[in-house]
Design a protein that fits this description.
five-stranded antiparallel sheet, 28 strands, about 850 residues, six-stranded antiparallel sheet, alpha+beta
Length: about 850
């Protein structure tokens, strides 16, 4: 063994020894200049001081506080271990100078007696990857942290030919207040060579399997293919590296036969092998007839492990007999037909199935592999009819009528056809069961029926609401006229106010009808969801009462949306009131706002939710919950679970209409006994440059002071009462009013008065000629009047009938409107 070096102990200092000697000599020389008595006292004190220092040193040496420097003072056992270590050990200071190096490191570095010890960065040099690894190690040493690297040196440090691998580790040391680094160098060449040999053997085995004359694949219990040999991948035209990393599954290569390969729980320790003739699907969609020897082993818990499947090619050109070819063709037809087929006995026990049957019933028949009975695959209400049909077929009846059944779970349906088995030599097989899935057809039929019903109700509601708005406009308008001529002290004033308030309540009900039919007037504006929820929070606390706790959780940096603020607040209030009613004994109502990205929206897996960026509002209660049957109907008009007289059934249908008309989505999740959660997804609005620079709404509002005006206004309205009220209201504010009961009469008034008219206030829906047609006709004749359109329908309902260039050339006034709203609209347009 070589010799190590150790510079870690404290070295003596010759300069200090010389200074101490000079000090002693100088003291003695100085004593000769003193008197006899003074010299005697000086010498006595000098000797006494040296004696005290000596006694003190002996005392410190005795208690261990002072140690005599030398080889015996150090820990000989520790040093012997480090000196003899099979790993190279090196300790360096902050300047990368060697403080200690054991014999093995000295041998690796090729250091002879007296030669300087090279640090790690000078010992390991060569290829770029070595230099990069050493640089990372040196940086770690400077930053006083632990780090490890493996480097490949060619040739080895000991000068032998070949390649050597070294594992280098550095960790910080703190000794006597000084920062140092401990380097460990381990030769791992033999370990690496062993690993390379094992990898080579494994590669040879894989190479043999890859080029075997038969295909082979293995799949895990979830149906993901974990291995496929090159022979099979060549048959299917798949790139192994690309598709296995991307998650190739049985459903991609086995198509309809994937259900036959899907294994259920079995007997612990069992190994089951099946011979299956199916078509595999190539990457280009073509079929490949094969025979599979499919083996699955079951663990101690009865769960299946990875499969081991050998694939024999049975396509044309392979060595196959004529009889076998017919068998292969039949197997292909049998397993690839979209109709589920199974043979059953008189009791309904299944004997054989095709791939479509296994796929249709999935896990239903896997629960009991030993006694698979078709009765367990359908709901109880359909079992009697199905078993009766099977019994009839088993008795030889050939004209058994098809029956519609609902599969177990209640989410899927099928039409069943039953025929008798013609071959009496087929054991206990009594009938053949054919099933054609009708889930999508039934769902489409139900959706179409529901859509027709909702459309009919919506049209009825919209039509009634439009006509009712005209009546309410007249009632509210004449109430305003009466209020203008009565003082608050008059006895009739309160009666008139009651009429107007009840008319406004009726108008609110009409808005609900229009919201359901999506024909209400919305005024979308830029809004922050957090601000809107915060604005109604105090109102919600009063509505919920003391028994219900309100917990509002605001998301951070919630995106802006565009919606009608008032209508959206109505949505929040309605959902909160419904939640309160679902918690009669009290509970907790939680509201949450957050951003939902494109990818996050897909994770919700809601049917009909288009992937996009949304702002989400969740309203969750801890109430009684709802059954799936109730959830399906909650958005229908006039459907309510409340007692008679405690709800109109229009609340949630109004919420649904407002959200849909705003371009959003609303979904409901509920569990009986645990509560209900409504989720509202509103599209994220991307701000334009104008919107970013626009002043805030409260800064831009300027309340109108003077509502009087002058000029000639053409008032076009087919409802006489509404027209009369509007004319009186405008005349009372100083305007000259020309009246017309239709668009045709309006054109006659224009022909007569021409340029004297400065503005047109027109209804939208009128006989003979509606408002938009009148607008277009006047444009054709060269009249560029300012327009105010009034309607009980939404603005979008007629705006699309106008030329795109003219869609901003008018103001819209929704019905019912009050006297003040009419005059303000005219004043605003007049400027």
């Amino acid at each position: 063994m070589g010799v190590s070096i150790d510079k870690s102990h404290k070295q003596g200092n010759a300069l200090l020894v010389l200074l101490l000697a000079l000090l002693l000599v100088g003291a003695l020389a100085a004593s000769f200049y003193l008197s006899e008595d003074g010299r005697t006292h000086f010498i006595l004190w000098f000797l006494a001081t040296l004696a005290a220092i000596g006694v003190l040193g002996l005392f410190l040496l005795a208690i261990g506080a002072l140690q005599i420097s030398g080889r015996g003072a150090r820990n000989d056992l520790t040093k012997m271990i480090t000196d003899g270590s099979s790993d190279g050990l090196l300790v360096t200071d902050t300047e990368s100078r060697a403080v200690y190096a054991n014999a093995h490191y000295m041998a690796l570095a090729g250091v002879t007696d007296g030669a300087p010890v090279r640090p790690i960065e000078r010992l390991f040099t060569g290829a770029s990857d070595v230099s990069e690894a050493v640089y990372r190690l040196v940086q770690a040493a400077r930053e006083r942290r632990t780090h490890m690297e493996e480097v490949r040196m060619a040739p080895a440090l000991d000068g032998q030919a070949g390649v050597a691998w070294y594992r280098i580790r550095v960790r910080p040391l703190l000794r006597a207040g000084r920062h140092e680094s401990l380097w460990t160098v381990t030769d791992v060449t033999q370990d690496r060579k062993g690993e390379e040999g094992a990898v080579q053997e494994l590669q040879n085995a894989v190479n043999f399997l890859d080029h075997a004359p038969a295909g082979f694949f293995s799949s895990d219990p979830s149906g993901q293919i974990v291995y496929m040999n090159a022979t099979l991948s060549g048959w299917l035209d798949y790139d192994i590296a690309q598709h296995l990393n991307g998650g190739l599954s049985l459903s991609q290569i086995a198509a309809s036969g994937a259900a036959l390969l899907d294994s259920a729980a079995g007997v612990a320790g069992q190994v089951k092998t099946e011979v299956i003739d199916i078509d595999l699907r190539k990457r280009n969609g073509q079929g490949l007839p094969v025979r599979l020897f499919h083996r699955v082993s079951y663990g101690h818990d009865g769960l299946p492990g990875p499969s081991r499947t050998i694939v024999l090619n049975r396509s044309q050109g392979e060595d196959i007999s004529e009889g076998r070819a017919a068998e292969v063709r039949f197997a292909r037809f049998f397993h690839n037909t979209p109709m589920a087929i199974a043979t059953v006995n008189r009791d309904g026990r299944i004997s054989q199935t095709n791939a479509s049957f296994a796929r249709l019933f999935g896990d239903t028949l896997k629960a009991d592999e030993g006694e698979r009975n078709v009765a367990a695959a359908v709901l109880e209400k359909d079992r009697a009819a199905l078993m009766e049909a099977l019994s009839a077929a088993a008795g030889g009846q050939s004209d058994v009528s098809p029956i519609d059944v609902t599969l177990a779970g209640g989410l899927r349906s099928a039409r069943a056809f039953v025929t008798p088995v013609a071959d009496k030599q087929s054991g206990d097989e009594a009938a053949i069961l054919y099933l054609l899935e009708t889930t999508e057809q039934r769902a489409l039929q139900e959706q179409f029926t529901q859509a027709q019903k909702m459309q009919a109700v919506g049209q009825l509601a919209g039509g009634v609401a439009h006509d009712f708005n005209n009546v309410l406009t007249a009632i509210i308008g004449y109430s305003d006229l009466l209020l203008a001529s009565h003082r608050p002290t008059d006895p009739s004033f309160q009666d008139i106010m009651q009429i107007k308030q009840n008319a406004n309540r009726a108008a609110s009900l009409v808005r609900q009808l229009l919201a359901f039919s999506r024909r209400q007037t919305l005024r979308p504006q830029l809004m922050q969801l957090n601000d809107s929820v915060s604005d109604v929070q105090m109102l919600l606390k009063r509505l919920l009462g003391e028994k219900v706790e309100l917990d509002v959780r605001y998301g951070r940096d919630v995106w802006p949306i565009k919606a009608d603020v008032n209508q959206f607040e109505q949505v929040v209030v309605n959902l909160a009131v419904n939640a309160r009613d679902a918690m009669p004994g009290g509970g907790k109502l939680t509201m949450r706002t957050s951003n939902v990205s494109d990818t996050q929206s897909q994770a919700y897996n809601y049917k009909g939710l288009t992937p996009a960026d949304y702002v989400l509002l969740e309203v969750e209660d801890s109430g009684t919950g709802m059954s799936p049957e109730v959830i399906e109907k909650i958005f229908e008009p006039f459907f309510t679970t409340k007692e008679v007289g405690k709800g109109t059934g229009l609340g949630l249908s109004m919420v649904f209409g407002i959200i849909k008309q705003s371009g959003g989505f609303i979904f409901c999740d509920s569990i009986i006994g645990k509560g209900t959660t409504f989720r509202i997804f509103l599209p994220r609005h991307l701000l334009t440059a104008e919107e970013m620079n626009a002043p805030k709404a409260e800064e831009s509002k300027a309340p109108a002071q003077d509502l009087t005006g002058q000029g000639t206004i053409l008032l076009v309205e087919d409802e006489e009462a509404v027209r009369a009220f509007g004319a009186r209201a405008l005349r009372s504010r100083g305007y000259t009013v020309l009246e017309a009961g239709s668009g045709v009469e309006a054109l006659e008034q224009v022909e007569e008065h021409g340029d004297a008219i400065v503005m047109v206030v027109s209804d939208v829906v009128m006989p003979e000629m509606d408002g938009p047609t009148l607008f277009t006709e006047l444009k054709k004749r060269g009249y560029n009047y300012r327009f105010v359109f009034a309607s009980g329908y939404a603005e979008e309902a007629f705006k699309k009938n106008l030329p795109e260039a003219e869609q901003e050339a008018f103001m819209f006034l929704p019905k019912p409107y009050s006297l003040k709203q009419l005059v303000e609209a005219v004043k605003q347009v007049q400027g």
